[in-house]
Amino acid sequence: MKQRQNVLIILFVIVIMAVYSAYEVNKPQPIDWSRNFSVDKKSPYGTYILKDALPYLFPEGSVRVSRNSVRERLRMGDCHFPETYFFVGMFFKIDQGDFATLLEEVENGNSLFVSADFIPDTLFSIVGIEEGKRIAQGKDYLRGFEDKAYSFASNHTSFRLRDSFNGEVLGYVNQVENPNFVKVPYGEGVIYLHANPMGFTNFYLLDSVAGDYYQKVLSFLPADENVVWDEYLKSGTGGQHTLFQVILRYPALKWAYVLMMLGGLLYLLFRSKREQRPIPVIRPLENRTLEFVSVVSSLYYKQKDHFAIANKRINSFLEEVRYYYKLRTEELDRGFIDLLSERSGVGRESVENLVNLIVRVRKAEHVNEEQLRELVKYIELFKTKS
After folding, report:
1. CA 365 to chain centre
2. pLDDT tens digits for 106-125?
3. How confident is the model at residue 239 (pLDDT cuts 50, 70, 90)?
4. For residues 84 and 105, what is the distance between their CA atoms, to the nearest angstrom?
5. Within 10 Å of residue 207's Cβ, how many Cβ atoms?
6. pTM of the prediction?
């Protein structure tokens, strides 16, 4: 019974998990409008489409997604010269050690492409930019493609160039004096800074008007270089999804996992109760004497052997006399009758009639049913009076 209850509990938890998982999978999912710029996200402001389009824009090189820091990637030997370190996101916030290593790689002939709303001052100072500034209600233009203007948001970011700036302006907001896309030589390599990462998101890549903007921006980069798309600065090493992280990433799998854990916990709680083996019931031995006598009597009665039944009854009666009244029963004479009447309290006449009937039955060679009935009647009458 206990095992059956445990099985029912487990089945109940499994059914609940299946029903809830089906509900979570099939219910309409809310649109994620966060500016995540993640290559894994198909949400409006993810970059899933751009990641898949890069191999076609750089046909002569390879495109890889890196979820490790710059120094870690170098230690792993995951570098293919020449390559472009490609970053698209809200903040280009990089560790000083990784930043120094990255600049060293660019100085040796690689390229750095950063498209972000917020770029650190250390990078600005290197390329000769003072700071960024906001422009309301602006339109984006690209050099060589001035016949088309692009509107992405109500506010646009542009760069304020220093006198020491020695690069090229590749894109601007409204007019050339408000650059938002520049190319600066650095050692043997090149640094590209771009201030409109929204132009690379899924939302605008699918837009009928702004859908070609990213192609024109990336056309300024060398087509023969290998591209390393950085996801480490946005999601860290957590971007490398393990099986457990994938389960927690999707609500349906996460709640199925939680329910499974709760079901397992409930099972352990119920099973942890101290269990005692059932104590067997030891029944006392039954007195089967009457049943045995009944069976034997029935057997004799069916065989019509009244003589044997009469002698059995007589022997049983005399045994009781010996046990209860302490009398010898070898000779059923007048002395026996007097003593039995005295000790049992039964009248002498009744005792004498019973003893005489016993003597006659013993001497007889045949006993009929009437004689047997009479014997039984006298014996029961004696027991009633005694």
Report:
1. 90
2. 999 999 999 998 888 899 98
3. very low
4. 10
5. 15
6. 0.58
